[in-house]
Amino acid sequence: MEPIMTKAAAAEQVVTARIRTGRTWQELAEKVGAPLVWTTAALLGRHPMRAAQAAAVCDLLGLGDDVAEALQVQPYRTRDEAALTDPTIYRFTEALTVYGPAIKELIHEEFGDGIMSAINFTVDVSRRPDPDGDRVVVTFDGKFLDYRW
């Protein structure tokens, strides 16, 4: 029996096919009927897709059943040290290093002792025009989870 393709290999094929077919991440998200950022993360191997979602994307991109199968596998959600050196990703790390303690204090002040869920969670990326150059707006929207002792 042949092993299931890795999520990294499937992601590489998705990215290649997306570029070569001229598709956008938005088009792929619309095809699977899921939020843009979630769909992009799933196609990059960070979430499992349902069979129908994986099949729809692979059909649109002309990819095989082996890719669809890999897209459905539950991923390991581990830290990728190499990705952290990418300038865009590093800026998020830098921003959380600087503002993380303040955000934590403000969450505690507003909600009490607890955390923001990254499971019951959505994230959105948008553009806001600005005379000094367009702004990137990233919105994290997570359920508050109180600590229960």
Automatic annotation (TrEMBL):
SMART domains: Cyanate_lyase. Gene3D superfamilies: Cyanate lyase, C-terminal domain, lambda repressor-like DNA-binding domains. Keywords: Lyase. InterPro entries: Cyanase, Cyanate_lyase_C, Cyanate_lyase_C_sf, CYNS_N, Lambda_DNA-bd_dom_sf. The keyword rRNA processing does not apply. Its EC number is 4.2.1.104. Residues 78-149 form the Cyanate lyase C-terminal domain. It holds the Pfam family Cyanate_lyase. It catalyses: cyanate + hydrogencarbonate + 3 H(+) = NH4(+) + 2 CO2. The active site is at residues 91, 94, 117. It comes from the Bacteria. HAMAP family: Cyanate_hydrat. Belongs to the cyanase family. Catalyzes the reaction of cyanate with bicarbonate to produce ammonia and carbon dioxide. This is Cyanate hydratase. It comes from Isoptericola cucumis. The gene is cynS.
